[in-house]
Task: structure prediction
Amino acid sequence: MLSSDDLDTACTALKQGEVVGLPTETVYGLGANGLDPQAVGKIFRAKGRPQDNPLILHLGAVDWVDRYCQDIPESARRLMEVFWPGPLTLILQRQPLVPDVVTAGLDTVGVRCPAHPVMLELLRKLDLPIAAPSGNLSGKPSPTTAKSMLEDMDGRIFALIDGGDCQIGVESSILDCRGQPCLLRAGGVSVEALEEVLGQKIALGPDKENPLSEQNAPMAPGMKYPHYAPTAPLTLVIGEGAETGDFIVKHQKRGEGVLCFQEYQELFSENIYKILGKENDFTQQAKELFSALRFFDGTNVTRIWAQCPKEEGLGLAVSNRLKKAAGDSVLSLENQVKT
Ligand code: TXA
Ligand code: MG
Result:
């Protein structure tokens, strides 16, 4: 584990083609020199990630974008100006120098300028883009602390820089704005904020609700793989907090855990539970989500019941990840006849 003062060691390692664990404001990443195909290949091996799933290229400043991308629409420039550095990834036409292994052979590349001060300083020292997926083993919840990244990656990477807990806690939003803007992954910038800057509605990617659906070919290739799953199966309950709380109390069996809103914790005091945040505090929920999912891996619960937040602001990103963690096990109490 390196401290954030030791960026020279990380910089040298990256230049020599090593893989390094890095803090960002969203989640920890597994980084390598994005222009070195062999180094990028090591990321896929460390993570156990399928080769057809492209990586995000992290940039040290807005003006690096023209080095690696071309045909950049005006709308993308506006978004970069407002949201970079920050949790927004834009899908753009790539320049030929971006290696195929980064983009999985696509003619586009996902780029973002991260807001974490340590990551930014490292990028600027290095003066090279860093290719980095989230720092979890494939299929596991993304790490939001150095400790949880080490749990997954100890022995698999050269070093890990401890930059403290991630401020946002869910990954970047991914937007393709080459034509009609289309959201490929809900994340750290809300749809509402993106629409306000663009002055138009954003289409939600076809895989939003059902990433495994055959007829909806996933547009962000990574969305088709199982994701964010804790070890115990998770059942997600959608509806008003008071109703989902009651529903879980009625259906929960002994030995089953609950991921609940703060307001309803007393209902579950006999069981193992973890608080996601207040029902309407989506920022707090985003920050807690992944460490809460990982918390249950350290218990022996046989199932996790979870209350689902409303799909507003960052609530959309939280709900989207809970749905993926739940797979088919999603129950909606909405639109049911109330008695
Ligand atoms: O916040 C984040 O975005 C974090 C931090 C480390 O920056 N990174 C992250 O990377 O979440 P990863 O690899 O776990 O997720 C990237 C997603 C994948 O679903 C991938 O398929 C999609 O971005 N993606 C990457 N390049 C793409 C492209 N050219 N076209 C469409 N989707 C792309
Ligand atoms: Mg990931």
About this structure: The mean pLDDT is 93.
